[in-house]
Design a protein that fits this description.
Radius of gyration of chain A: 19 Å
Oligomer: homodimer
Order of helices and strands of chain A: HEEEHEHEEEHHHEHEHEHEEE
Low-confidence stretches of chain A: 1-8, 332-337
Strand content of chain A: 15-25%
Structural class of chain A: alpha+beta
Number of strands of chain A: 13
Largest interface: A-B, 75 and 75 residues
Distance between the termini of chain A: 23 Å
Number of helices of chain A: 9
């Protein structure tokens, strides 16, 4: 459930309202509204089943002149699989509802589905159905991904405790650096750094294997994926866990190469979004064993701070040890209103 | 998976292509692309789980000036629950991905979800998650509904045999008659007939209880819901079952009152769509027992013809016994291109 779009504070408010208004217990439901995915427990099933939905709209989430149909397909499924990764689930199936303007060619459609199918296959998820509509506006893509737990071990946003060490996988702000290139008209480049940033933006790699390992390991108290940037997502995890956090800005794994094209790497890491890395918390007592056990060939992980007892407050600690409150802001990619 | 929108023949072609290109066996999957819902079999689960997705777009599927947010909500979930009804599944959960223009009020959003929740509750389905986006164009609603079988008895489109009697529930062409009223600017009326047509259009009642009973009864070889009109949907059932059909036009349960406002009731029944009634086939040998057993207080059912061995051919038999081929056509509700 990435929340990278505009009206972000409104959106949090609406979700809260839906949660209050429509949540009810059911023997078949482990977890409803309010996490990366819902968790169902089919009767007598060995495993939980997880469901997540994401919608992507032309000119809000992608632009046809900046990308290819394969990339749109692969990104559409990747953002959904990332939600399953964030709970530690194994991707299994997905459905695609697609609305297309009349001018879209059959070739475009096939390339789009090939992009979907490639990334789905890579992570074990199979297309099982959907809907096709005509759009008199832009392209709309809505995907629902379905995953299976392993031994019913899933990780929620809500298990974090004060004192837990806060980790992220990979590098933050790289996708946003790629977007900056696109915004300045540089969609083709031979530079390795620029290529890397563009790739991160076009074809994010959902951390399914890592999320599964983390959930199985038993070291992780809470987890989510970073879709809207640390500044938007970390407060959500804190709210769900009833804790606060402090983050050492100097320890955030930024993408320093983006300064070559005029970006502030720290700003992109905090506010850029669309990295689809994992954010998770490990109890201090398990930390050294966790670090010893974490597989060497997995994505890098970085301890960026810790959870605190100051409920709802997220602080940034600068290199001069100065504290400042983290501002919750994302940016709307195509319409700086 | 209603197919009521434009480019209908293209759409059948694309779905066929997806089916050929991306279908692969999985031990957890009973049925993938090509029916009203996909059917999953979680390991050791007592039941199958069914998944279906439908997208509704402003000015394609609904118009804000013709309807209320509650009606949009209730129709959005109803069309999905109808797909579950068509397989005989019990609705359990649903997710909602929603894209909204900035001008939509919080009040509108709450009324919309109240409409969803009312119909969901009526049929035992609970909201468990979703996505909220900004749209820079119209409203987009994409719902995924999840149902559970009872004793693993689900009915596919594909089990029909030559000689089976063809049945429909309820009345056909009533929703389209309501749409005609809206198109001619008559959204308020005191006439009972007109009210009934408008209600059928705004708040279709998915046949969940009937679908479940039919699947449990063991009398039904194949079933689907009528979302695009008999002329579009019956050929799909015939294609899936590898049979043909003949329909006695005089026996189709039309909505004759629509002639009062200039409609041709038969034409609306064949080509109008959005009735969300069930179409199903009963073997001749079981027919009399079926008719005796079918509950008296359930929606009316009507035998409208039979399946034949003439694969892919659907004939209409007029009251003068003349045969003519049924033309596959739907209509695009808001844009007669």
């Amino acid at each position: 459930m990435p929340k990278k779009k505009a009206q972000l504070s409104d959106e949090n408010k609406i979700i809260q309202l839906l949660q209050q208004r429509y949540t009810s217990a059911s023997r078949l439901l482990e977890k409803g509204i309010g996490d990366d995915a819902a968790v169902i427990h089919p009767e007598q099933s060995r495993e939980y089943w997880l469901i997540t939905t994401d919608m992507l709209l032309e000119n809000i989430d992608f632009r046809l002149d900046w990308t290819t149909p394969q990339h749109i397909g692969s990104k559409s499924i990747a953002v959904n699989l990332s939600d399953l990764a964030a709970m530690g689930a194994r991707p299994r199936f997905y459905t695609v509802a697609l609305a297309l303007p009349g001018k879209i060619s059959e070739h475009w459609i096939i390339e789009f589905y090939d992009g979907l199918n490639k990334v789905g296959n890579d992570h074990g998820a199979q297309l099982i159905g959907g809907d096709l509509s005509r759009s008199d506006q832009g392209i709309v893509i809505s995907i629902t991904a379905i995953g299976e737990s392993l031994k019913r071990k899933v990780v929620y946003r809500s298990g974090g405790k004060a004192g837990d060490y806060l980790y992220v996988t990979g590098v933050l702000g790289r996708s946003a650096a790629g977007l900056k290139l696109l915004q300045s008209g540089k969609k083709n480049t031979r530079s390795r750094n620029r290529r890397e940033a563009l790739d991160a933006h076009h074809t994010p790699d959902p951390r399914c294997g890592t999320g599964l390992w983390l959930a199985q390991s038993g070291f992780v108290n809470c987890m989510m994926d970073l879709s809207d940037g640390l500044s938007m997502d970390l407060p959500r995890m804190c709210a769900a866990s009833g804790v606060g956090a402090q983050v050492r800005t100097g320890d955030i794994p930024v993408f320093p190469e983006s300064s070559q094209w005029g970006c502030d790497p720290l700003e992109l890491a905090l506010y850029g979004g669309e990295d689809y890395e994992l954010l998770f918390a490990v109890p201090k007592s398990k930390n050294s064993l966790f670090l010893k056990t974490y597989p060497k060939d997995f994505p890098s992980i970085t301890n960026i701070g810790e959870l605190t007892g100051e409920k709802g407050k997220v602080w940034l600690i600068g290199q001069n040890k100065m504290r400042e409150r983290l501002q919750e802001k994302g940016f709307d990619h195509f319409h700086q209103r």
